[in-house]
Amino acid sequence: MLTASILLDLLNGAVVTVIVSVAAITAGVPLGLLLALGRCSKGRILRAACSTYASFVRAVPVVTFVMLIYFGLPALGWSLDPLPAAILSLTLNTTAFNSEIWRAAIVDFPQGQLDSATAFGMTRFVAFRTIVFPQIWRASLPSLVNEMTLLIKASPAVAIIGVVDLTRKGRQIAATTYEPLPPFLAAAVIYGVVLLLLVFAARTLERQVRVRLGKI
Amino acid sequence: MTTLTDAMRRLCGTQVSRWLLLVVAVFGLCAVGARVAAGATLDEIKKRGYMIVATEDDYPPFEYVVNGKPMGYDHALLAELRKVAPFEIRQEILPWQGILPGVASGKYDVALTAAVITDERAKSLDFTMPISESTMAYVKRKGDTRIQAIKDLSGKTLGVQQGGASFQVLPYLETDLKKTGGSLGNIVQYGAFSEAYQDLANKRLDAVIHNIVSLSTLVNEKPNVFELGQRVGEKSYAAWAIAKGNDSVREFLNNFLAKEKASGSMKKLQTEWLKITFDDLPSQPMLPGDRPMH
């Protein structure tokens, strides 16, 4: 049975899920852009380092990655508490996936616009800030939001190091009531609400951008 | 050094070499990890002023969480330990699957959980004296007349926990079944027992294997759904686990547990939480079948 106190307990877990996800998304979107720029740079070493990172992180399952950060880093003398370790792992993970999205937009960017900018004497930085970036973020937005929803759904992986997120709360409740269905159904509804809010916000933003700035 | 950087630069160009680098890096990390695996000694713990213990959150009646509050037999013992320890005791609550890597990597000093002492685990961990008997048993649906004894488990679908003692007891069960001409049926591994119980109630499973104490708690809670069966495999014990070779911490915990036993406090906590008392627990960790570990 689903009582009010169980529901409240689940909401506490939902807060943790939202905190780790929002923190990872906030840091991971700009870091993904930096990584993408690194992967498109002219320096071979930088390019190789950035793409090795992206390949490695995308190849490792999230839960393995979380354990590597939490249990592996102390061996290198850097010990993190569970919550920071969880946020760091999710950030490093989503950064790699975001970099793919940003990179696709950068690679697709029409070279002609850059040539014109150079012809007008713009530096690379100014051209990026005023010409490239305003276009690629709009092109990348739907894919970035998609990655955000995937990240939120991958976030239960952090439970392995003791961060009690929404899914783990559900499991704790199931362990004492011996009925996993009610807490997991309630958790599914809460996930649904969080994701719907995110998707709704993104749609609104996309529409505003189209109205104010016109189509790309 | 120059040759090394040259070689690395040459390697960096290709996809295959990137993976090679990755493998080298991961192995390097493991090598560093292996060096600290012995865990902090008691002196080191006293010097830094705190001990870190890991407990579970979904293992009633030993350790569980209700409304964010840790409860159960081990949490009660931990409260006693905190009263006498000459240092602070920090606690991390996490799933079973994260506890053993944490102890092995030295992140936690003690797995303060009712870990069943098995041959498999004895290879990589040390244990304190037992805190409870923890012989495996099976639970079936109430009124399922097909299963009356161990031999009836032949060919049935059984639920166990990934990496749990319930999984490690399967070879013993198989030997028993073969004696009566039977064989092991389908085995389904779960991350958490609550899901296995649900699948048993839903008739996806015919029986679930777990320790007798946890199963008794389950049957007490849901007497109309489940029915306790017989013991499976040999007599086993549960104890707290520490990193292999960490003798000073083991001695410290054993002294504490011996005092708890002598004062009758352990028995009181068993009655309160486990609803059953074990009067003849050995004072040394014992492998299944009462074989001494050391």
Sheet of most strands of chain B = 6 strands, mixed
CATH architecture name of chain A? Orthogonal Bundle
CATH topology of chain A: MetI-like fold
What share of residues are in beta strands of chain B?
A: 15-25%
Uncertain segments of chain B: 1-17
Q: Summarize model confidence as the mean pLDDT of chain A.
A: 94
Multimerization status = heterodimer
Count the domains of chain A. 1
Question: Roughly how many Å apart are the termini of chain B?
Answer: 48 Å
Description:
The complex is a heterodimer of chains A (216) and B (294). Chain A is built from 8 helices and no strands. With 216 residues, chain A is an all-alpha fold. In chain A, helix 4 crosses helix 6. Chain A is flat and about 70 Å long. Chain A starts with a helix and ends with a helix. Chain B folds into 2 domains: 149 residues, D-Maltodextrin-Binding Protein, domain 2, CATH 3.40.190; 97 residues, Periplasmic binding protein-like II (D-Maltodextrin-Binding Protein, domain 2, 3-Layer(aba) Sandwich). Chain B has 12 helices and 16 strands. In chain B, the strands form 4 sheets. In chain B, strands 1, 5, 6, 7, 8 and 14 form a 6-stranded mixed beta sheet that branches. A 5-stranded mixed beta sheet of chain B has the order 11-10-12-9-13. In chain B, strands 2-3-4 form a 3-stranded antiparallel beta sheet. The longest helix of chain B has 21 residues. Chain B is globular and about 60 Å long. The relative contact order of chain B is 0.17. The N terminus of chain B is likely disordered. The interface between A and B is large, with 36 and 41 residues.
